[in-house]
Specification:
The structure holds 2 protein chains of 2 kinds. Chain A is mainly α. Chain A is built from 6 helices and no strands. Chain A has a single domain, classed as Arp2/3 complex 21 kDa subunit ARPC3. In chain A, about 80% of the residues lie in helices and about 0% in strands. The longest helix of chain A has about 40 residues. Chain A is globular. Chain B is α+β, with helices and mostly antiparallel strands. In chain B, about 20% of the residues lie in helices and about 30% in strands. Chain B is built from 2 helices and 7 strands; from the N terminus they run H-E-E-E-E-E-H-E-E. Chain B has a 4-stranded antiparallel sheet with strand order 2-1-7-6. In chain B, strands 3-4-5 form a 3-stranded antiparallel sheet. In chain B, a hairpin with a 5-residue loop joins strand 3 and strand 4. Classes of the chains: A mainly alpha, B alpha+beta.
């Protein structure tokens, strides 16, 4: 399989996974479990995977697709919130993946979840014209640590499995599977 | 369990624990407290549209120009109705302590409880 074909296919799959995860997440009744305004952020698993395996432009593109999808399904405000949180957290996770060798998926998941919330609070503050939205910061921070640890751990478990599958595909090809 | 299969190293776990401790401390430090003479300030797109004294005796149902309905009962105030999709504002619940706030971002509406001195702001702790 050609490298570019592989990358295009993976990009398409990850975009689809990101959207499906955010839809599935919206079906779960979070009220009572999560504080108001907080989300599990499962679709970050796809974004983080893209940031590690496809690089910065692809991860950002998935973030943009997610924001557009939020805009179409949940309105303009949801799009801006998705965009502001997504862009900041994707940038943070990419820089961490690139410049820290030993940090690991879980801390990166946590820090990108925190920056996602920070970006959203910033946008919310601008949209409502008040810094009172920062009242949501303490609970969001705590939930970001929990959800970020979960997404990071899922990624840590999933990546070796996917790499194994890809390697198997490659070796099949070398044996003349073309 | 070899190194390859571990989900997190001790160093990573420590990092997370430190972060969690800092977040918990932040949570308790910024926790709002009850105060006499507290005022609920309602803003729409940054502009103050109404102020309600929390010590007011009469209950009130406030309908704003943007259709948002705010309820004031027993010294507590909160969003009751809003046209927004996620209803985060309503789920935030009733506010009564200085420093608490509820926001409806799609409608640009914020309720924040402020103390007597108007120059206190919630982020300067």
């Amino acid at each position: 399989m050609k490298k570019t074909t592989y990358k295009i296919a993976l990009f398409g799959i990850l975009s689809a996974v990101a959207l499906v995860l955010s839809v599935l997440e919206s079906f779960i009744p979070w009220s009572g479990v999560m504080p108001p305004g907080a989300k599990a952020g499962f679709s970050n698993i796809a974004t983080m995977f893209a940031a590690t395996s496809l690089g910065f432009p692809a991860a950002m593109a998935i973030t943009l697709i997610k924001a557009l999808f939020a805009g179409v399904t949940r309105g303009f405000t949801a799009m801006l919130m998705s965009l502001s949180g997504g862009v900041l957290s994707t940038a943070v996770m990419y820089l961490l993946f690139k410049h820290t060798k030993r940090m690991g998926y879980m801390p990166i998941g946590v820090l990108s979840a925190i920056s996602h919330n920070a970006g959203q609070l910033l946008a919310a503050g601008v949209l409502v014209g008040s810094k009172a939205v920062l009242g949501y910061a303490p609970v969001l921070l705590i939930s970001a640590i929990v959800t970020g640890a979960v997404t990071g751990t899922v990624l840590r478990a999933v990546i070796p499995a996917i790499n194994k599958t890809v390697n198997n595909m490659n070796s099949y090809e070398h044996k003349g599977g073309r | 369990m070899n190194e390859q299969r571990k989900l997190a190293s001790p160093l990573q776990a420590l990092l997370i624990l430190l972060l969690a401790a800092a977040a918990t401390a932040f949570f308790f430090i910024t926790r709002p407290d009850r105060q006499d003479g507290a005022v609920a300030v309602i803003t729409v797109k940054g502009r103050v549209v109404k102020e309600v004294s929390l010590s007011a005796a009469e209950d009130e149902l406030i309908t704003l120009d943007n259709g948002v309905v705010i309820e004031f009962t027993d010294g507590k105030i909160g969003f009751k109705e809003s046209g927004c999709p996620d209803k985060i504002c309503i789920r935030t619940g009733m506010l009564s302590k200085v420093g608490e706030s509820a926001a409806c971002v799609p409608e640009g509406t914020v309720i924040s409880i402020e103390g007597k001195a108007p120059d206190i702001d919630i982020i300067s702790y």
